[in-house]
Amino acid sequence: MKMKLILTIMYMVVALFAAHLWAADAPVKKGKARGSSLSKIDKSTKLAYEGGTLPLTTTPVVGTPTRKYNTTFKPGAEKLGPDEIRVTILGSGDPFVKRSQSSASVLIEVGNEQHDFFFFDLGSGALANFDGLKLPVTSTTKVFLTHLHSDHMGDLPTLLGSLAKSGRRDPVEVWGPAGETKELGTLAFAQHLEAAMAWDYLSMNGHPGQSGARLIPTEVPYDKPATVYERNGVKISSFPVIHIMNGAVGYRLDYKGSSVVFTGDTRPSKTTIEACKGGVDLLIHETFPSATVFSKKANVPKEQAELVVNYAHTSPSMAGKVFKRAGARMSVMWHLVVDHETVGPAYQEMRSQYDGPVTIAQDLTVFNITRNAVVVRQAIIDPVAWPVIGKSNVSGPPLSKPVNPPDWWAGALITD
Fold this sequence. Notes:
Number of strands: 16
Number of helices: 11
Structural class: alpha/beta
Shape: globular
Largest sheet: 9 strands, mixed
Distance between the termini: 88 Å
Strand order of the largest sheet: 1-16-15-2-3-4-5-6-7
């Protein structure tokens, strides 16, 4: 009897262990995630800046992935599939940049032979997150700006100067909206930025990266949709959005049957719904806290908060209405201040209008997109990363010789 009991217990242990292994190898079913996931999002939810490793979504997997994904994304540990898109939120925050959230930026990688990747906006702090992803600094050559607010382009001088010093030899192509007048457009912005960085550029005489410290700007229409990029199987289109004044756009990227729409800053807009027609896998839509929450958090009068939220941006409830009309496989609330007093109300207000899959973006939220599934995770990056050097189109010696040292240095320099 005793031996029978022991055998029974051993059988149960083996069965439970086998079931655990089977579950780990089994395909993820629609709407289910392997491992832990959030059952709710409220003021008690652990956030990324506190060490939380779960994305802010109750639906971390939509569809049925055909490959396994780790619970968290670790740069360099996963090869991107040839038909796959990976989207990483480099900056999820608003104009008030902080350690917990960099300002506006989204990185999109595609699985083509060139392993192209694209920056959509490049707000302050975004490149610190990018550098930890261990992607080639030599390929940081394609930037799409939605508009010229500083929180959407504050890291462009760093990209232009510092990453050229870190190994990029090819110039940076920048697409951005035209303005109602020339001085309000991306061409003028690029020219003035290069002029402002004249000392930085001249100091790179003799450095191989000097050729990479140049911009090649292209303006896109602010008042109509347009196809603005078609290379290596990637198509990027722009569309006008409603944000304060003319000169703001959103973008749609299509690759191998999968698609991403990124609005930049906008009020709820029919042009966004049009951009999602034909189906979209991931819609990244700006979302500000409600005027009530914003007034309290930003220490501004309610009337001013109403103007900011409802006449320049999109409230959580209106974001929910947009999500419902757009019908994306996964929708993202982006540009939202993420703390314990904002995420709960914002999520609940959005849920009053929409019950589909939604993620609140944090810095380093990652979306893997295939025709079969959308998988959401948080990335864990290397905080002390060094540059990764890949291939460059520019080769040969530096453009110029180093500048001659000023005469007074000879007597002022400490050499012993």
